Amino acid sequence: MVYFNIMPDKDEKPRKKIVVEEVKNTPSIEVPPQTEPHIEPGIHEEIKEIKSGINPLFIIIPGIFLLGALLGGIVYYQKNISGIKITVTTPVPTISETASPIPTASSEVDTEKYDVKILNGSGIAGEAGKARGILEKAGFKVSSTGNATSYNYTKTVIQVKSSVEKEFVSALTEALSKTYEVDSKTKSLSASSPDDVVIIVGSSKSSL
Fold first, then answer.
1. Are strands 19-20 and 187-188 parallel, antiparallel or unpaired?
2. Tens digits of per-residue pLDDT, 54-113?
3. Which residues touch 20 (CB under 8 Å, ≥6 apart)?
4. What confidence tier does 158 reach under pLDDT thresholds 50, 70, 90?
5. Does residue 45 lie in a domain region?
6. Which residues cross the membrane (predicted)?
7. Would you say 199 and 118 are in contact if contact means Cβ atoms under 8 Å apart?
8. Do 158 and 173 touch, CB atoms closer than 8 A?
9. How many domains are there within the chain?
10. CATH no. for residue 125?
């Protein structure tokens, strides 16, 4: 630093001191200027066109349609659900009543327990053989057939020994009554008779 001292004259007014300061030169730091990213003019224009070309209506209108479709679907679904009536039908078990077979006298009786002899008392040829077929079909055992001493019988007569069971006689009467008119009174055979049961076929037929 250099000082200049200038002495003033007596007649002169005092002068100010001039101080000259040497400033050391310090190296300046240059800051590189910030550069913006370089975008080609064509790309810059395309970006501007894309940004300016997007119309908000293209986003809003489809959104409104989608929202309306969604709400309509929800309303339709709720209406269908409320309109559907679920009916649960409980199957009612049906009881099928099978008619049990009515037991007949012939089904409860041993129809082959006694031998049956058939005589034709109607005067109609072949009537004894016809009666034989009826009884054998019903399960009875026929020992023989022949002609009665008289052809004047109108009703069919059943003759049995006292040892023959009543159930057997009832079954025999039932089988013959389908074709012939059977006398309601059963005749008795003597104990010395070689046959247990004798049937004399009459000419009168059953009206059943």
1. unpaired
2. 566 667 877 787 888 888 778 777 777 665 555 666 666 665 555 555 545 445 789 999
3. 1, 2, 4
4. very high
5. no
6. 57-77
7. yes
8. yes
9. 1
10. 3.30.70.2390
